[in-house]
Amino acid sequence: MGTRIQKWRFNKLVQVIVASLLNKYDFFMVIEGGTGIGKSTLAYHIGHKVALEFKRLYKLDHDTVEYYYERVGRKAGLTEEEFVDKLLRLKEADAYRFSPKKCLIYTQEEMQNALASWNSMSIPDEMINITFNRDFYSEKQKDIIKMLNMFRDHENLSICCVPLFQNLDTQIKNLTKMKITVKKRGIAIIHTPNNVIYCRDKWDSATNEKIERVWVTKKLVRPNYAQLTTFRGLVKFPKLTKRQEQLYQQVKNDKRAVVLKDDMGIDIGEEEANKFDPFDDCFERLLKGGIQSGHHLNGYAFAMQLTPEQLRGQLKKELRKRKMSVTISDYILNKKHKAEELAGIEA
Fold first, then answer.
1. How far is CA 129 from the centre of its chain?
2. Domains contained in the chain, number
3. Could you say which of 186, 212, 257, 336 is the most buried, measured as most Cβ atoms within 10 Å of its Cβ?
């Protein structure tokens, strides 16, 4: 008999997050999954439901206040009056208000501002562009990691969306309190790090990778996720309403043009930004010597929610069409310079 899969009510997920925030800690969580599988939808639902839960607390709904007082306030040594006073202070500060226009962020500057705030909510919808695991945007990335460490008592909620959790910087992974893997639309797997003392990898990546490799070898269609050491349960989530989806997409479209202009130097309007093809841009930059290193190229891959191998495969296919060399390193600027220097020395 296999281990019984624990299923979470969506409200339980929300309560875990709210309880952590009320306990004077931030809650940094990551949602991973492929393109168009529902990461942003889940992030929207979490942000929206957390905001509603705080609204109930601000209205001093008896059952809601009692629930969190028993789990957080009493354990913190607060009287009921002190706990209510804290809720009223949060209400006065307009804490944890959910607004897609305010919460959805794409740039490192926005991320830094969110971390420096108190009792805020943010959704870095393409976190891989902000905290890539190599030297992509390295200086600002270091600042963000410092801020994540320094401001852990600011009680902020960050809901980050990435294609693959393992591609994040190790320090970012260690600061993550919950990882949710969206397997298909409407169904996600909840993971939390193991409470370890000596083990450096709280996410037990090596062990879990071995388990997954067995599933792949056996070609299991419905693997037992409870075998993973970080597995905590499954949660279902609904689609966005048409109105929610339109609002969320509009915010994305508006911010995309800003990101292209500020971070990539591409000054185009909103309509053109929506049609912008990152692969075409990457290919043209590669040909013109605009790709500085392999890590820079990897950054493009992850931003497009592709593996580095998939992007290189697509680039080679396009190069082959144009009857050009398919050796990617021939076009990467740093490698071209080194090859030219070696050629000069040999001459």
1. 10
2. 2
3. 257
